[in-house]
Amino acid sequence: MKPTLATRAIWWKEIRQLMPLAYVLIGVAVFTYMLSALSSAQARETLQWALFAGLPSLFAVGAGALVVGQEKELRTLQWLNSMPISRPALLRTKLLAALLGLALMWIVSLVLAVLFQSPVLYFSSGDATKTWDLLASSSNTLFLLVAGFALAWRLNSILWSLILLAVVALIPHLLASAVAVGLGQRSQNPNDWFLAPAPTLFAVQLFCSIVAIMASTLFGRRALGAAAAPRSVPYGAWSSHKIRKMPQPFDSPFRALTWQWYAQNKLLLRTCIAVSAGLCVIACVFNDAEFIDSGGVGFVWLLLASALGISVFQSDDLHNRIRFFADRGVAPVTTWLSRIAWPGIIFSVSGVCLFVCLYTFYHPHLSQRNQHVFWMNLAMVCGGGIAAFAVSQWVGQLIFSPIVAIVAAPAVTALAIGFGVFSVEALGTPYWLAVLSLLILPVATAFAMREWMDRRKQVRFWGIHSLFLAALCCIHFAPISWIAIFEPGMSAEIRQEIAAQADADYAGNSYSPVELYVPIPGVFDINSPQNQAEIEEAQRFQERGAYALEGYCLNSLEKQISEAGNGRSISPGRVVNFLRSALKINRLRIRSAAEESDSPSISDQDRLGRDRSDQESLDQDRSEAQESEPADQEQPPSPNSENSIVAQELSAKESSASQEELRSRYNHLFEVTLQIIDRVREDGRNLKDLDATDILEFALVKELVESGASDLLDTAVHDSAVQTLTNIQRRQSGRKLAILEAIRIDNRFAHTFGGYVLPSSRANSTLAQIRAQRQRARELVEPLWLCATRPKQESTAWRTQLVEFLGRPPAYYGLGDGGTFLRGSVSTATPQLADCPGALWNAAWEQEALQLSGSMHLN
Amino acid sequence: MITSILSFRRWLTIPLVLAALLLVVACWFGGRELIANKTLTAKLQELKQQGVAIDDESLARRFKEQTHPEGAKAWSDVFSLLQARQNMYGSGLSQIATKPWSQGEFEWKDRELGTSFLNDMRPLITEIEKACQAPKPVWQPIHFQGVSTLLEPVQHARAVVDFLGLEAQHAIEERDASRAMRALVLMQKTVESFDWNCFLVSKLANVAAEESVRTVIRRSLCTEFWDNAQLDSLATLVGPAQEIENTWKMLVDSELAVGLDYLRQGGDEGFGPQATKSYFALPTKLPTNQLRFVNMLRPWREVAQGGLFGLQGRVSAMTSKQVQNHSYDTFAPLVTSWESLARVLVNQEELRRLTLTAIALRRYHNSKNAWPSELQELEEFGLGQQLSQTVDTKRFGYRAEADAVYLWNTRAGAVSQNYSTSNWPIETFDELQQRKQDQRSSFALGSWVLLSAGSDE
Q1: How far apart are CA A322 and CA A460, in angstroms?
Q2: Beta-carbon separation of A345 and B178 below 8 A
Q3: Rounded distance, CA B336 to CA B331, Å?
Q4: Residue B303 near residue B248, CB atoms below 8 Å
Q5: Residue B241 carries which DSSP code?
Q6: C-alpha to C-alpha distance for B273 and A807, rounded to whole angstroms
Q7: What are the angstrom distances between the C-alpha of B363 and each of B217, B380, B396?
Q8: Could you say which DSSP state residue B450 is in?
């Protein structure tokens, strides 16, 4: 064979060797990206950041072990040595193939980030800090890869080379921190003092990579050399010393198998026990350490769980050892139990011990709020640990290559945890069910044991695993499916009625009302220069007093209504309180003025006399202003005019406004309110706007009926008011249309309806949303529809449903203590009603309004 | 297969032992909760028979029984109107006064705007007057939801008191005594209308509102503003001492209902509609915990027996005792305010006495055109010895200078209006002067009164 041909063959072999790892990682990444796209924004950002750097990092970790370790494991190094290719060329080819793979993984990661709109795209914004972060991440993967190579060449055990790599990976960070401290670049933040700046880290990692390449070359040459015979026993092999210590005789196959598994994985088990003990010591002694607060202990325990999970089957995969038992007819169940017994016990015991230590020594130091967080974190770590163990042992059986399995296990575990989070958050699966469902994976490995032992990865093996995986998914989708099928919604009769009504009456075109506002300084939002000018004008009126400002606001409202034109509806929500209070205060002013004029108090006589003369000046001032600017009756005075000075002096003397003027204002208020009501009743299709209009109508009814204010109104205004208030048919048809509009607009969003924010706004999972939609249809839409379409029927049951659904005080819907009081008497006095859809529908005030028809002067 | 299974027996022993242990623990736990539930049910039944509210329903019933519905509509109208009209002034009263009376001091921010506001709201005062004629305390529609209960009327009442305080201050500055007296009377009646003795928070708000009334009175006494008849009216307005034992019991009882509701709900993060259920709600729902809470709260009912004298000491002792038992820590969010309440009630009474003493001093000066050399000389004006001393029988500080008279609370820990404490007694006039300089703002009018000899301050 020609050397070039051999080199080409080696290139092809190395790349082929790396492909399974790349496939697994890309598959996991794509799936996780898809999951993250369905998750909440915060979870998505975290996941996608982790994925972007995690994909090449995991490849870098596994590449050395795969390309070098597998040669050692399969004893093919001698065969490679026999090829017509020099050792340096062989070493170079392996390293370059892995580097090429790493570069490709970075490209794949970037493509995925672009495809899924990952936050990593922000790097393109040209922020130097973020660019350095990206460079530091890439140099980190480079170091991991070459260090992995060096360790794989140096050590005989793949597992140990991977474990040691986790420790060696810290070296550049520690060095960079030392350099940063030396250069005075230490972070100001005490929590981040050990973090070096990204440029320093980048430089140090590059330096460490060069050192690692040199070490890799050195160790590689030794390993390939004739004298490079293994100095220690290969991973898991039984030494004669161990055989001598073997207890004899075993009374059952299970005991023998368990002992054999222990002997095979003794070193790993002891390491795991030592790590567990170390974690417990940290929890007991250093219980105020940042390492615990930041979740370091939990993270290490998760890694431990993953290592124990992997150990269940992987040591038997080496050189197909398990065939030894299969060929001798050892029962699969016995074998499965013997494989899982030790890791399972160590995993459980380490978890319990760690919990006891944390609870005894760490928990008491926490504040009450953090104690609450402790339990939440503990539950998450516990679930994560179970996931890590169950998934890793499953991956260990599924993937026959120990190296690919070791590298893939954490990635698949992360994917499983991601799926669990998605399931709990988005699908609404109970947390306990999500954790329990993971127990399916050990059952799956038990069922597939026969095929695994026979090393037959055929249809039956994959079928078993697929079935159990499908069962796991079914468990996660079970709650949402249950809700989708069995959660009751609106009754069929009402649904049909609404559908028919929508077909018959409802045009369904877009609806965008003009939102009215009251230009009061400090209340009115200033969004544009035009509004700024308006607010300045309002401020000048405010300086003249509330009465002047009130007049200005009324004129502004009229202007807004006319500017909205006839084609567009208006939204009165923000002006309801102003109009209600203005109506009442003006009526009280008129009454008060009348009483004062009947019997002025002695102490006020002088002042009243002065006020009257001032009033004459003010009236004159106003009449002049009206003549010059008929469209704007409350024009602010020019600061230089004498009249304005007089007006400013009198600004505080609102009591000086004559009764006639007060009546005129009162009529004006009625007119503007009626204009708003008419416009909304004609065109309004927003439930909240219609309810706000109900409050306005209610206020007018109370003014006319209860307060006896009809004698203060002009005949035309009074009759117009009565006409509007007695048009019950228009009111009810508007409500029906508003419900249809709310169903159309808010159907996709369970947290709003007709402009109202509903209590289920916290529903962020699909399950919760489906449930909320059904519940909303049953407990909100249906009773509202019934109230709107059946005004003469008893509505207590429907209103009770509304109260329960909305969580509002029953009294607001005329129920329970104070129900009659609020609904019948003083609803105008409860602005909270603005948050209660349909609270005023079919209440006593509508009957009172109907009775007004007899009082019309034109009759 | 059977042989294999049998050979597992050693291994099976481990989970079996664990399962047995778990079963024992579960049985013990279940039994304990059953017994606790039985005891709790019996205890709550007993409390219910005694008329103590144990849930939202009984709390609503008790509230209805203790209040009068007649003035509810009028007050709702007042609240609504005040709230809506305040919006005409941007951020409301804060745009008019930098320091409202509820902070123990008063300072105009924009007096002209204030004048305009008061003129605009003049008809409202008539409405408040009408509302005040209704029997007290007045019922309001409250939706009882345990710890999430929104006590909006209390806040509205506070706003009314602040508004009336503004009116009173304006009238005092305008030297309009009848208008000022009317505003003060309405302030006091508003306070009485919403003195529900239901909920700790409501009580604290009510005490603060009442203190606003007294602060305005003390402030008005700085100058020669009132005649003797009006001073007598003011003394009547300040009224007798509040009955403390029963009030305290009622508050503890209402907190019992609230706390039990909180535990039954499993604890909340936040309050009101935005509250979210805790992920780990189970422990608080356990009957054992509810029983512990009831047992922990019951002794608090008797703490106020014996009146205000030594109340703070008794409350501190009880707190220490419960801290030692760890029960107080566990339920701290529910009952952390008892010490505050004790401090506020003691302070309320002392400021009442201080106000009455100040009125008597002004009365003395009106009658004799001179200041008394000692507070004992005020006895002829109806001021008993008890009224010129603190609750722990320490006589108020008094100093008559040539141009002014100083009267101050000498008790260590006496609080000013905003509840900041002075940790040592102010025995001498020099100490008072030093204190004034050190803590000008927080010390303010809460613990001392300055009475000027002249007609202007």
Answers
A1: 18
A2: no
A3: 8
A4: yes
A5: P
A6: 8
A7: 14, 11, 18
A8: E
pLDDT digits (tens, 9 = 90+) for A80-133: 777 777 888 888 888 899 999 999 988 888 888 878 766 666 555 556 677 777
**Radius of gyration over alpha carbons of chain B, in Å?**
27
* Closest residue, chain B, to A337 (C-alpha): B8
Taking an 8 Å cut-off on Cβ atoms, the answer to whether A546 and B89 are in contact is yes
Q: Rounded to whole angstroms, how far apart are CA atoms B134 and B76? A: 13
- pLDDT for res B454: 43
User: Do β-strands A514-515 and A570-571 pair in parallel, antiparallel, or remain unpaired?
Assistant: parallel
Task: Give the containing element (helix H, strand E) for A285.
Answer: helix A266-285
CA proximity to B78, closest of B226, B239, B193: B193
Q: Which of A584, A604, A605, A825 should be substituted to probe chain B, the one whose Cβ sees the most B Cβ atoms within 10 Å?
A: A584
Tokens at A305, concatenated:
């769980």
* Close Cβ partners of B302 (under 8 Å, ≥ 6 residues apart): none
Which letter does DSSP use for residue A660 in this model?
Answer: H
DSSP 3-state of A727: coil
Contacts of B89 in chain A (CB under 8 A): 522, 542, 546
What is the rounded (10 degree) CA torsion for A102, A103, A105, A106?
A: 120
**Nearest-CA neighbor of A514 among A550, A555, A565?**
A565
Residues B330/B292, Cβ–Cβ less than 8 Å = yes
> Looking at A58-169, which runs of residues are DSSP E strands?
none
Q: CA A219, A223, A229 angle in degrees (round to 5)? A: 135
Tell me the pLDDT tens digit for each residue of B395-413.
888 888 777 788 877 766 5
Interval A131-169: pLDDT, tens? 777 788 888 899 999 999 898 888 877 777 887 888 888
**Measured between alpha carbons, how far is A26 from B54 in angstroms, rounded to an integer?**
60
From B77's Cα to the closest Cα of chain A, the distance in A is 5
Distance separating alpha carbons of residues A568 and A591, to the nearest angstrom: 38
CB < 8 Å to B126, chain A: 588, 592
Cα separation, B200 vs B190, whole angstroms:
18
List the single residue in A652, A808, A830 with the smallest CB-CB distance to B112: A652
Query: Cβ contact (<8 Å) for A550 and B14?
Result: no
List the structure tokens of A709: 């204010």
State the amino acid at position B73 in one-letter form: K
Is the per-residue pLDDT at A650 higher than 90? no
Q: Determine the residue type at A75.
A: R
Mean pLDDT throughout B365-374? 84
Q: Distance, in angstroms, between A71 CA and closest chain B CA? A: 38
3-state SS class at A144: helix
Closest alpha carbon within chain A to B91: A522
Which of B253, B172, B251, B261 minimizes the C-alpha distance to B205? B251
Give the position of tokens 């029983």. B291
Is the distance from CB of B187 to CB of B211 less than 8 angstroms? no
Exposed / middle / buried, residue A601 (Cβ in 10 Å: 0-12, 13-18, 19+): exposed
Note the pLDDT tens digit of each residue in A382-411.
Answer: 999 999 999 999 999 988 777 778 878 888
**Model confidence over A294-337: pLDDT tens digits?**
777 888 888 889 989 988 888 887 777 888 888 888 888 889 99
Would you tell me how many other CB atoms lie within 10 Å of the CB of residue A827? 26
For the record, the structure tokens of A613 come out as 């003369």
Q: How many whole angstroms separate alpha carbon B207 and alpha carbon B344?
A: 8
Q: Do B116 and A654 touch (CB under 8 A)?
A: yes
The answer for A522, left when phi > 0, alpha when psi is -120 to 50, beta otherwise, is: left
Asked whether B226 and B115 are in contact (CB, 8 A), the reply is no
**DSSP string covering A61-84:** HHHHIIIIIHHHHTT-HHHHHTSS
pLDDT band at A648 (very low <50, low <70, confident <90, very high): very low
